[in-house]
Amino acid sequence: VLISGLSDTDFAEKAGAYRSSLPEWRSGKTKSYLKKLPQIAAALGVKSEELLDDDKNAPELKRRRLMLIYN
User: Fold this and answer.
1) What totals of helices (H) and strands (E) does the chain contain, helices first?
2) Tens of pLDDT along 6-21?
3) CB contact at 8 A, 22 and 8
């Protein structure tokens, strides 16, 4: 269940992503979500900056922050 209350299907649609991408994002198998941060933020009702760490060179930290909001 998402904090935003969206199903995976609804979230993927609002974020402009394929639902099949979501497990890969959660597991860290792919970092393609980084290209979709503005759409993901909009789908979750937060600002893109809230999904990013201060260290722009740390995509793993960004992924963990995103997963905290998304999962």
Assistant:
1) 4, 0
2) 888 888 899 899 999 8
3) yes
Tokens for 71? 């999962």
Sign for the CA dihedral angle at 47, 50, 54, 55 comes to: negative
**pTM for the whole structure:** 0.67
> Which of the residues in the chain have pLDDT under 50?
1-2
* Residue from 54, 5, 71, 1 nearest 27 by CA: 71
- Report which of 33, 42, 18, 29 is spatially closest to residue 65, judged by C-alpha positions: 33
Instruction: Please give the single-letter amino acid code of residue 18.
Output: Y
**Residue 43 · residue 58 · CB < 8 Å:** no
